[in-house]
Amino acid sequence: MFEATLLEARTLKNILEAIKDLVTQTNFECSKNGIVIQAMDSSHVSLVNLVLRADGFENYRCDKSIILGIDIKSITQILKCARNDDKVTLKNMDNTKDRLNLLFENSDKTQKFELKLLDIDNEALGIPQTEYAFKIKGPSHEFQKTCRNLSIFGDSVSIDVDSDSLKFTTIGENSTVDTIFHSSSSDNNNNNEKFSIKTSSDNEAISQTFSLKYLTFFAKGTGLSNCVKILMSEDVPMVVQYKIEDIGYIKYYLAPKIDQEWVLFFFLYIFLLRFFSLLEIKEKNLKKKFKKRKNVHVSYVQKFPCNFTQIKFLNA
Q: Which strands, in side-by-side order, build the sheet including 59-62?
């Protein structure tokens, strides 16, 4: 049997709001330690990692580890029937394993819903431990506002960070927009009113480009926390993290964009490697073919030119 109770439906509503644009169907992996969600978006560009600890629920019971396949749109529609201050209980009984029961309670009424579970084939995702060069902490509403504003002008944003500032730059069709946050001089930024940047002494600055579409989706985590944490390093996905009260956290991972010229160069390089590899294979096959002919001397075959066009002409 599985059962988990939250004092306010608002928490679950905000969690689903924070992932619904990235994930349509996902597995809730439930164990004695809590609930974990790991899922990639359909384009495999971003990753969502949600952790809800067992001790963060008012009541939590999980007799054995189970996987609940949830359709995000369906459960979001059900939660629209709950008031923000309703107590919400999720329950999966042993005799109805293909159903998730939802119970909304307040002083006036009780509502019961039943959601059909899905069989979702999710790949097991391993998230490597990474030591990030820059750790940025600041007000989540400012991050959300910046992403929304910049998305009006362009599809991508260049994020430049050093020990003193955090800069967002978007180049549109007819305009360029820069938003610069100066690092707080205070070591203890408890009010989260300004951005603070921590870095090791050997990391001077980095610059990476990301999709504003995905960052805007990530910024919906603002409903979960007043503070956002951003982790960045060269050549690894950035992390956008929100703490969920005293129950857990949600982390978003987003791969940086690659310069189109480098992408074209890479594919051209791969094409040339495959092309010359095929030439080499065909040349070897032709040499073997000529060696078997009695009227062709082996020493002559060994002097064949490497150019495949000439070899083909000699074989005609």
A: 59-62, 2-6, 87-92, 99-105, 110-116
